[in-house]
Specification:
With 217 residues, the protein is of the alpha+beta class. The protein has one domain: 4-Layer Sandwich (Glutamine Phosphoribosylpyrophosphate, subunit 1, domain 1). Helix content is 35%, strand content 30%.
């Protein structure tokens, strides 16, 4: 089952990635939404989004499931915050996503929920964290970098060659930009735009919001 789910995510038209830097976390994605027949359904779908004041999430998978999961996470985290009168940690948020993903794929459905997720954010007193949640509900803390989606086979090679432990946030942003560009150049299901967020103890910022347009010579 795990291998089958991973293969489905690799076939999903997307490139998302996360990079752990010295001062924080960088998260990035393209904007193209692809139908099953490989035609383009949307050229401006934001796959990396700020959920609240301390959390950013990136999605690879079914667009409808990603949108639903995004709303569920925001609501559940707010309820948890109100009940406990304290802000959930990033690990708690990641575990929530993992639990929902685990439950979704084990419910009989004509169209299974297939979503892989990056969860990044900053804790109140314990720094920034980045987690990778598989469509099967598995959860892995990212210590350096990771990429998911059909374009990941192109972006991961660049990340592998150019990532350096302890690199600055500025270097991380530039590396993320180049990695997304690499996937959009070669992966037919990734493209049309780049969104990059930085996560530090000072807050969350969208530092790149760029369209990718064809040039004719």
């Amino acid at each position: 089952m795990d291998a089958e789910l991973k293969n489905l995510i690799l076939k999903t038209g997307t490139t998302i990635l996360g990079i752990v830097c010295k001062e924080g976390v960088v998260m990035a994605s393209d904007r193209q939404v692809t139908l099953g027949d490989m035609s383009v359904a949307d050229k401006n779908f934001r796959k990396t989004n700020k959920i609240n004041d301390y959390l950013v999430v990136s999605w690879a998978g079914n667009a409808s499931d990603a949108q639903r999961l995004s709303k569920l996470i925001a609501a559940e985290l707010r309820l948890k915050e109100l009940k406990s009168r304290s802000r959930p940690t990033i690990r708690q948020a990641a575990n929530l996503v993992a639990s929902i993903s685990f439950s979704n794929i084990r419910q009989p459905s004509m169209i299974p929920s297939i979503v892989a997720t990056f969860v990044g954010g900053f804790n109140e007193d314990d720094g920034e964290e980045l987690y990778n949640i598989g469509p099967d509900g598995s959860i892995i803390k990212v210590e350096d970098y990771y990429s998911m989606g059909s374009g990941s086979k192109f972006s991961i090679g660049l990340l592998e060659r150019q990532y350096k432990k302890g690199m600055s946030l500025k270097e991380g942003v530039e590396l993320a930009k180049e990695a997304i560009k690499s996937s959009t150049q070669r992966d037919i299901a990734s493209g049309y735009g780049i969104d990059i967020f930085t996560i530090t103890k000072s807050g969350i910022k969208r530092v790149v919001e760029q369209e990718i347009t064809p040039e004719y010579k």
